[in-house]
Amino acid sequence: MKLYARVKSAVANEKGQSLSEYGLIIALVAIAVIGTLSTLGGSLDGIFDQIVQKLSV
Predict the structure, then answer these.
(1) Is the model's pLDDT at 14 over the cut of 80?
(2) Which residue spans traverse the membrane (predicted)?
């Protein structure tokens, strides 16, 4: 009976559930940002080089 009460209490606790959901969302956003930056990294580097060259003239 005690085990059932603990499981029921853990399932009813939404605070931990929402925290883990936020953690998953943050992880997915971080993966998307890393993927995008690694894909566009070379072209962004070239664009920044062009900007620096034009500003230094």
Answers:
(1) no
(2) 21-40
